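@channel sequence for tomorrow's demo:
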Amino acid sequence: MESTYGPSLRRGAIPLLERRPEQAVLASVLAGLSGGRAAFVTLTGRAGHGQNALLRWAARLARDSGLRVLRARATPAERELRYGVIVQLMTPADGPACALLQTLMEHQPSDPPPGIDELLRFARDVPTVLVIEDTQWLDPASLNWLSSLVRRLTQDLPVAVLASGSDVSARGEDWLTVLPQTPTPQTSPASAPTSQTSAPPSSVTMKRFVLPGLSERGVAAAVELICGAPGDQRFTAAATDATAGNPAVLSDVLRLFTDRGHAPVADRLPELHAIIAAVVGDHTTRALNVLPGEASTLLRALAVCGDLLNFPLVRELAGLRSVRGQELRATLRAAGLTVSVGTREHLRFPAMRARVLQDIPTDERADLYARAADLAHRAGANDEDIAHLLLRSPPLGAPWVIPVLRRSFSAAQRNEDHRGAGAYLVRALREPQEPYERALLTLELAAAEAVAVPEAGDRRLGELACSAGPAAAGLRVRAIDLGLARGNYDWVRRAAAEALPHARYSERDGLVSLFWLADQARDDTEPMVPEVPALPDRPVSPAQAGVRAWQLAVRGDDLATTRVLARAALAGDGPDGALVVPRLAACRALIVTDDYEEAGAELDALLTVVRRGHLRAATARILTLRAELHLRSARIDAAEADLEAAERALPLASWHPLIAPGLTGLRISTAVEAGRYAHARSLAAAPTPPGAEDGVAWATLLFARARVAAVDERWAEAMELSKESGRRLLRRQWSNPALLCWRPLAAEACLALGDREEAAKLSREELTLARRWGTAGAIGMAELWTGPMTGAGGRPVVRAREALRVLRDSPAQLACVWGLVQLAAAELEEGDRRAAARSMAELSAFTTAHPASRPAECVRRLTERLEKPARTPLPALPREWMTLSEAEQHTATFAGRGHGNREIAELLSVSRRTVELRLSNTYRKLRITGREELCALVRTMEGRPSDAP
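structure tokens (generated this afternoon):
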């Protein structure tokens, strides 16, 4: 790593890092000058790359070597001053140089460049070094004088001309092109200095260097030197990229960074970027202060349009004539503020833009953006680029503006840039337009804001729902429909009820349907709202038919009517037939009626419609329902894919608290069926938003948490959660067992806890309600899960076969899978290994497609049992067991499982004395002598070997 080999490090300076090759050549030139050898060395590159610092280093070295040094620096302010730089150059001289200075001041433009002969004679007596900085600003007379001097250099003349500048002059050309080409200078990269170029007979040393910015290694050296500690790799890379390795900028940045007590580590990158922006802004301001005012005007135009417009259009935006615009373009490049790329001009540093824009008065800046957008549109620029300009412009009133913003909105939606998409529509609303078009745009914006700023979207929907006049006709109902898709049930009830008295006839049916659909999904703590007419039993309106079908479905009433109404809702094309949530309710009703295929086709069609309209909340709701349909159909992978898509359409944080638990609950249940138990536990333990407990969707989450508890055999928790889930459903009169199988899960937990009576009671309720509803799926699932609890239906294998027979007539394929699992287990238990093998073979397609799923896990365990040699049939249970009371059976079961008397007393909430009395009666009735025989008997009853632990 290079160290401080340049000038001594002082406040605000940076060493001449990565400039050893150039220093070596300059030192060689000065050494040759003492021996009488002339030289001409130029240092070019972008402004700030250290050209002037190298010349100053060479000037000090020349003075230390006893050489005479004449120095000058060109500036933008002296570009029109004839011989301004040559006057600077000669001012310190004495003797013949003083006479030369007088001659220059009296020189006329038509005369040849004066004084060169006198300077050369003077130099023969005292070897002389001419140091000229920033030659890109040379006035024409000084440049012509310098060119003539270089042509006069000869090998034996002890004069060295050292010049620096940027890679372009203020006139737009490389200033080196006007200097003599004989001898021809050879350009060398900074990393490899050119060898001396000889061109007999003169043999004058001529060198040209183009200085690049510092490499990342050079920046690392500067960081360590100025900050006092090495920077980590990310910090160094960021500093290199943001400063483009410009030593002048880097020096100021690192000084400020260190002064503020920061360490050069990646954690401080935000502070580094803020300081870089400030430093670049200060450099820009200082550069502009010495340039013509028109240069600032051109730079402002560039800052507004970036690289979107070619230079002729930028010049038009700045209001400059063609010739003057080209001159100012060259001036900005010479000052190091811009770089040219093809026909376009770019600001050199991105941070410049913020400072330049900040300095433009607000009204002037808005006007520039407006004119830039118009120019970009005329030039056929990309819609999104034009839209970015429009976001910062005042209303234009041009007919092309809103279509451009709408197309940009659609593109942003496709790219998942939801905030950007909303910004385009907000800007479109500022344009003059008809009231109906404005209301329609507001509706579209509210739907888009559901993703990033749902509260803002809700406010817009509220404004539309309350608006009066013909412009809002039809849009009020659509606004409330979108609010319902968001799950904002309280607002929907209130908005629909308040809008109803003033609504047009065509809106009334839709408002009534939305009110009652929202009313079903909320708990009983809703605020009071105006009275709303009840839905008719057989509605004609499609929206009302869909809501009525769902009302009947959740209560498990009238399967045939439910099916008819749901189909009518989806086939209707009246004024309210396009409402999304009533159609979604009809699809849900068809799922409950076992019409999976119809429901799936309608969901697909509805999904296409809402995606075309960018209705993200509705899209998420449809995908969630379709995921439930896939899960019921044993398409677990498809269910997981739709749930992921639902969260992409509407992130969980943007779901309304009243419906968010439904999504989480379905994700948990899907994860359980997929065998991803750790993920299910994580979801079950995740916090929920405030207010989530108030909606009916909370029951879905409670049920899913109960399933996780059951998987972990936390039976008391599983029982309480599943029963609470059922209580919440029953509070809303949602009693249909096809909605959520909470009773079988609660019954299973009760049985595991020894409460056979409660398990049987819940099972009988489930079967009764399923038969009342009448679908094959509901009846088959009830028979499948409740038979073991009630003991009805004969042997387990008979019950399983009957349940499976019913389920085969339904589309509930996941229930069929579990029916086959239970049948295989029962057949294996009875010793019918061949039948069990056939049942498991029927499951092979599912287990192959879902090898990690919960049913596949059960099949693997059954397969292991099947592959083991057949055991001797278990002995028959003693008849005396049935003589025990239910309480004695519970107590004996716990004792047989190894629980102590104190533990049994706590589990059954009785005294230890009661436990002892029950066990004594049990021993007497079973004709056994004690606990050891009881344990063996219970093991036999539960299918375990008698010697099991």
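heads up for whoever presents: Residues 1-12, 182-202, 945-949 have pLDDT under 50 and may be disordered.
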